[in-house]
Design brief:
heterodimer; A: 377 residues; alpha/beta; D-Maltodextrin-Binding Protein, domain 2; nine-stranded mixed β-sheet; 14 helices; 9 strands; disordered N terminus; B: 550 residues; Rossmann fold; 3 domains; six-stranded mixed β-sheet; 23 helices; 46% helix; globular
C-alpha cells in the first residue's frame, strides 16, 4: 500500500514535473524546430560540386539563389574556370564534379565529348542565354543608318547589317569617309572592338559571326572556306592592337572613356544589362546594335550525376530563379519580362531576338582561330 | 639580324599569348571582385606584413596623399616610391622594381614588351588625363585656335614649322608625355593609323611638328619653372597632361593663361593603370583598387589633381572642373613595340633638333683619387655606345649631334670636337674615337673651373650664330673648388657681359665633390640650367639623366 502510494506519488510528481518541464520542452521545440529542420534538411541535402563560367558565378553566389536551392535540398560548391578548360576536368564521381555550367555550346560540346570518351552519360540544360550585341552611341549608329548598315528597331536599339559594316572595315574606311558623318567627325578607322579571339570566348564568337556574314549568311562548314575567310577577318583583330586588352577593359573603356575611344564594342548583352540592372550609370546616348542574324551565347548546364539533373531542371524552370537571372542580365524563357525589367532599370533592349545562327563546328572554329592567331603573330 | 629579330618576335608573341590568357583570367577575377561589397571603413592594420609599396612615376607626386587615405579606408598600409618614367619602366620589365605594384601614366610601353607583360599580374585603370597643347591665350587667338575652332594636327605642325608655335615638352626618349605625344603625332598623320609601321610614318610632318620643340627637359616641374621664365617671345606653348596645364593655369604664376587645344584628330590619353607586380599581395591590391575607383578617391583625384575620374557617376558630378563640349577622340596606339622603338630611334637620330654641347671636364690632379677618373672615363664611354639597355640607347650620342670636349686643369686645355655622323658604320668609328679620347685623359694640376665654363659658353655662342638649328647646352663636370683664374664672383660679372646668345645656353652642372655644391647651384640658376647630384648615384647614371634635358 505504502508502496503503491509511493508509486502514485512518484507518478504525480512525474506528471507535475512533466507539466513544468513539458511546457519548456514545447517552448524549446518550437524555437528549435528550424534548427531541427535544418539538420533534417542537411541530412537530405546534397552538396554538388561544379565548375562554372565567370558569367554565371555572381548569379550562383546570390544569397536568394542559394536559399531556393537549399529549399530544394541542394547546395552547390563551385569553382570558376574558363569554359574551354572545363573539358579537361571531366571525371567520374566522386572525384569528379557533378556538373558544369559553361558559356557557349562549343564548350559544352567539348565537355560532353570528354564525358563520352570515359562512358559518362550527360544531360544538357540551357537555363538562360544572352545574345551577342554591339554597344555603340546614338551619333555613331546614325552614321551607320545613313550608310545603310543599320536600321532603327526601337528605343536605343538598332538592327545591324554585319556584312555591310564588315565591308567598310575590310576596305579600311574611316568614319570621316562615310557620307553624313558630321555627328562623329573622326579619322579613326571603322573597327569593332573585341576581346582577343585567341584567348576569349566573345572574341571567338565575333570571328564566328563575321565569317557567317562574309560567307553570304551561310554557316561555314568546310575547312577551305574557313581558312580563306579567317585570313580576311584576321586584320580586324590585328588592327585593334591587343597589348592591354583583356576581358573587362574594352567594356570599361566604352563606359568611362566613351565614344572618342570606343565607338563600337562587341559584347554579351548580359554585360551591359547587368550593369544597368545594378543601377550603375550608363551614358544616355549609349545604344545597342543587334547584328542580324546574331548568335546566342547559351549558358549550358551539363549534368553528370542524378542530383545534378535536379539542379539543371530547377535552374531552367523555377520562376523565381529565372527572375533573379534577369537581374544578372540573362534572358530566360520570358522575353517580355526581360525587356520590361531592363526598361524599369532605365535601359533598353530588343525584346525578341529571333534571327539566330549557330556557330560553326568546333573543328571549323579551331581552324579559323588558328589562322587568326598565325596572322597576329 | 633579320632572322634573329623574327625569332625573337615569335617568342614574344607566344609569351604574349600566354600572358594575354593569364591577363584574361586575371581580369575575370577582378570582375568578380567588383561585385563584392565595398571594403568597410574600419582600419585594421595589416598583420606584421610590410607596407604595400607602389613604384609611381614622378608626375604622380600630387597623388601621394592617397597613401594615407588608402590606409584609413582599407587598412592596407601603403607607401609610394617615386621614379623617372623610362627608368621605372625599365625596372618593371627587368624585374627590378622592388615594389608590390607600379603606377604609371600608362602601361603601353611596359605591356608592349613581352617581358613587361609577364611582370604584370593584374592591371586596373584609375583615372584619365588627355595629353593636350596649352598655348598662351594671345597666341592661340592669333593662330585662330580659340572658341570652337577645329585645330588639326596638320595646323599644329605648320605652326611649329613656321615658328608660330614654340613649345616645351618632356623628352620623348625618357618620359611618358613626350613619348605619347610623339606616338600620337605619328598616328595622326598616318594613312593607316591602326596598323602603323615605320614606313607609314609621315616623316615630313613629324619633323615639322618637332621644329617647334624648343624647351626640352625630363620632368614637368623643371619644364614648368623654365616655362614660367620664358613664356612669351621664346616659348609660347606647353605640351603636357590636361591636369598639369589646368593646375598651372590655376597657380597664378603664368604671364597669361594657356588655352587648351585638343587637336581634332584626337589625343593620347593617360589612363593611369595600377599594375600588380607581386602576386602575393593580390588581396591588398584588390582592396586598394576598389578604394581608388570608389567615390571618395575618385572625387579627391578630380578635385585635387584635376584628373578625370573613371567612375562615371563621379565624372558627371565633377564635369565642371574640365573643359567640355568637345569629343575626346583617342588616337590609336600601335601595339607593335618594334614600331615604338624605331620611332624613338628616328626621333633621336633624324627628327629631333640635334644637340650641340660642350663637356667641360675637370682633369685636375684630384681626379686621380678613389676611382674618380674611372667614373668619368666610364661615363664618356657610356655616351659613346657602351650600353645597350633601353636607357643606355636613349643616352647614346645621336646622329648629327655635336660634342666638344673642353678639359681643364691649371689651364683651359685644347678642345676636341666630335661630329656624330648619320651613317651607322661611320658612327661606330666616331664612337671608337671618343672612347679612345676618354681612355687617354690624364689627371694632373690645379682647377681653373670658371675660365673653362666661360670659354665653353663663348664657344657655343659662336657656334649658335653660325648654325642656329641646334639645341645648345654646357655640361660642367668638376670634383673640386676652383683655385685658378676667375672665382664665382668674377664668373658672374663676366657672364653678365656675355652677349644674349651666350646667356641663352643652360649649364648642367654635376655635383661630384663635396666642397662646391653651393657654387655650382648658383651657376645652374644663373644660366637657367640644372644641377645633377652624382655624390650618391653612379656617374654614368647622372650623365644619362642629363641627356634627357639636352
Amino acid at each position: 500500500m505504502a508502496k503503491k502510494a509511493g508509486v502514485i506519488a512518484t507518478a504525480l510528481f512525474a506528471v507535475a514535473l512533466a507539466g513544468t518541464i513539458g511546457y519548456s520542452v514545447i517552448e524549446r521545440s518550437q524555437s528549435q524546430r528550424p534548427v531541427q529542420q535544418e539538420i533534417q534538411r542537411e541530412l537530405q541535402t546534397q552538396t554538388l560540386k561544379g565548375f562554372v563560367s565567370v558569367d554565371v558565378e555572381p548569379f550562383l553566389k546570390d544569397a536568394r539563389v542559394q536559399k531556393i536551392l537549399a529549399d530544394h535540398h541542394l547546395r552547390i560548391e563551385i569553382a570558376r574556370i574558363g569554359s574551354r578548360e572545363m573539358a579537361a576536368k571531366v571525371q567520374a564521381a566522386p572525384a569528379g564534379p557533378h556538373f558544369f555550367l559553361a558559356a557557349g555550346v562549343l564548350a559544352a560540346r567539348m565537355i560532353t565529348d570528354a564525358a563520352t570518351r570515359i562512358n559518362l552519360p550527360t544531360v544538357l540544360y540551357s537555363p538562360f542565354y544572352s545574345p551577342l550585341v554591339i554597344a555603340s552611341w546614338e551619333p555613331v549608329a546614325q552614321i551607320l543608318v545613313n550608310n545603310g548598315a543599320a536600321a532603327k528597331a526601337g528605343d536605343r536599339v538598332y538592327d545591324l547589317d554585319l556584312a555591310r559594316i564588315t565591308d567598310f572595315m575590310l576596305e579600311r574606311k574611316r568614319w570621316k569617309d562615310l557620307p553624313g558623318h558630321e555627328s562623329y567627325d573622326v579619322s579613326r578607322s571603322i573597327l569593332i572592338a573585341t576581346t582577343d579571339p585567341r584567348t576569349s570566348n566573345s572574341g571567338a564568337l565575333y570571328l564566328a559571326l563575321t565569317s557567317h556574314a562574309l560567307n553570304g549568311y551561310e554557316v561555314v562548314t568546310d575547312r577551305e572556306t574557313a581558312r580563306r575567310l579567317a585570313g580576311r577577318i584576321a586584320e580586324l583583330f590585328k588592327r585593334q592592337g591587343f597589348q592591354e586588352n583583356y576581358v573587362n577593359t574594352v567594356f570599361e573603356d566604352y563606359l568611362s572613356i566613351g565614344m572618342g575611344k570606343v565607338p563600337l564594342v562587341f559584347l554579351y548583352e548580359y554585360q551591359i544589362v547587368a550593369h544597368a540592372m545594378a543601377k550603375r550609370p550608363i551614358p544616355p546616348d549609349a545604344v545597342l546594335l543587334y547584328p542580324k542574324p546574331t548568335l546566342f551565347s547559351k549558358e549550358v548546364f551539363v549534368a553528370l550525376t542524378e542530383p545534378a539533373k535536379a539542379l539543371g531542371e530547377l535552374l531552367s524552370t523555377h520562376p523565381e530563379l529565372q527572375k533573379i537571372a534577369v537581374e544578372y542580365g540573362f534572358r530566360g524563357a520570358d522575353s517580355a519580362l526581360f525587356k520590361e525589367a531592363v526598361g524599369r532599370a532605365g535601359f533598353s533592349v530588343k525584346e525578341r531576338v529571333v534571327d539566330i545562327v549557330d556557330p560553326p563546328s568546333g573543328e571549323i572554329m579551331a581552324e579559323m582561330i588558328d589562322v587568326v592567331a598565325a596572322a597576329m603573330r | 639580324m633579320n632572322e634573329a629579330l623574327k625569332a625573337m618576335a615569335k617568342v614574344a608573341v607566344q609569351v604574349r599569348m600566354a600572358l594575354a590568357f593569364l591577363l584574361a583570367m586575371v581580369g575575370l577575377g577582378l570582375a568578380a571582385c567588383d561585385n563584392a561589397p565595398a571594403p568597410s571603413g574600419n582600419g585594421k592594420a595589416a598583420p606584421d606584413s610590410a607596407a604595400f609599396s607602389i613604384l609611381a612615376t614622378s608626375d604622380l607626386r600630387d597623388a601621394e596623399a592617397l597613401a594615407g587615405m588608402i590606409q584609413r579606408a582599407t587598412g592596407v598600409k601603403t607607401r609610394f616610391v617615386f621614379g623617372g618614367t623610362m627608368e621605372s619602366a625599365d625596372k618593371v620589365i627587368n624585374g627590378k622594381a622592388d615594389a608590390d605594384a607600379a603606377w604609371f601614366a600608362n602601361a603601353k610601353y611596359v605591356l608592349s614588351d613581352p617581358a613587361g607583360q609577364a611582370r604584370v599580374k593584374m592591371q586596373e585603370k584609375i583615372m584619365l588625363s588627355p595629353l593636350v597643347i596649352g598655348v598662351s591665350r594671345s597666341d592661340a587667338q592669333r593662330l585662330g585656335w580659340t572658341g570652337d575652332a577645329k585645330v588639326t594636327w596638320k595646323a599644329v605642325a605648320e605652326a611649329a614649322q613656321s615658328g608660330r608655335l614654340r613649345y616645351a615638352m618632356s623628352n620623348p626618349a625618357s618620359s611618358n608625355q613626350g613619348f605619347m605625344a610623339l606616338m600620337g603625332v605619328a598616328a595622326a598623320f598616318a594613312d593607316k593609323p591602326e596598323a602603323l609601321t615605320l614606313a607609314d610614318v609621315r616623316k615630313d610632318r613629324v619633323r615639322e611638328f618637332l621644329a617647334g620643340y624648343k624647351l626640352v627637359g625630363d620632368n614637368s616641374t623643371y619644364l614648368s619653372e623654365r616655362f614660367i621664365e620664358k613664356q612669351g617671345a621664346e616659348i609660347n606653348a606647353f605640351i603636357n597632361y590636361e591636369s598639369w596645364l589646368l593646375s598651372l593655369n590655376q597657380s597664378g604664376k603664368l604671364r597669361e593663361p594657356l588655352a587648351l587645344i585638343y587637336p581634332h584628330e584626337g589625343v593620347a590619353t593617360a589612363d593611369y593603370p595600377l599594375l600588380l607586380l607581386n602576386d602575393a599581395k593580390r588581396a591588398d591590391y584588390v582592396k586598394i583598387v576598389d578604394y581608388l575607383k570608389g567615390a571618395e578617391a575618385q572625387r579627391w583625384l578630380a578635385e585635387k589633381t584635376l584628373r578625370r575620374p573613371l567612375n562615371p557617376e563621379i565624372a558627371r558630378q565633377t564635369a565642371s572642373l574640365f573643359p567640355s563640349g568637345r569629343l575626346l577622340v583617342e588616337l590609336p596606339f600601335t601595339a607593335d613595340r618594334a614600331v615604338a622603338d624605331a620611332l624613338l630611334d628616328a626621333y633621336m637620330n633624324q627628327f629631333r633638333t640635334p644637340i650641340a654641347s660642350v663637356f667641360v671636364l675637370d682633369v685636375s690632379g684630384s681626379m686621380k683619387e678613389a676611382g674618380r677618373r674611372q667614373g668619368l672615363v666610364e661615363s664618356l664611354r657610356f655616351l659613346a655606345g657602351g650600353d645597350d639597355s633601353i636607357t643606355g640607347r636613349l643616352a647614346r650620342l645621336a646622329s648629327r649631334e655635336r660634342v666638344i670636349m673642353l678639359p681643364f686643369s691649371t689651364t683651359v686645355l685644347p678642345t676636341q670636337r666630335f661630329d656624330i655622323p648619320a651613317d651607322d658604320q661611320a658612327k661606330v668609328q666616331t664612337f671608337a674615337q671618343i672612347r679612345r679620347y676618354a681612355d687617354g685623359l690624364r689627371m694632373e694640376g690645379r682647377t681653373r673651373l670658371y675660365d673653362a665654363a666661360l670659354a665653353a659658353l663663348k664657344l657655343l655662342a659662336d657656334e649658335k650664330t653660325e648654325s642656329p638649328g641646334y639645341l645648345y647646352s654646357v655640361v660642367l663636370f668638376t670634383d673640386g673648388q676652383s683655385n685658378e683664374g676667375l672665382d664665382l664672383a668674377g664668373f658672374k660679372q663676366a657672364y653678365r657681359q656675355l652677349p644674349t646668345l651666350a646667356r641663352s645656353i643652360p649649364v648642367f652642372a654635376i655635383l661630384y665633390g663635396e666642397g662646391n655644391v653651393g657654387e655650382l647651384e648658383e651657376v645652374a640658376a644663373l644660366t637657367r640650367g640644372k644641377t645633377f647630384d652624382a655624390r650618391k648615384v653612379r656617374l654614368p647614371t647622372v650623365f644619362r639623366e642629363i641627356r634627357a634635358y639636352q
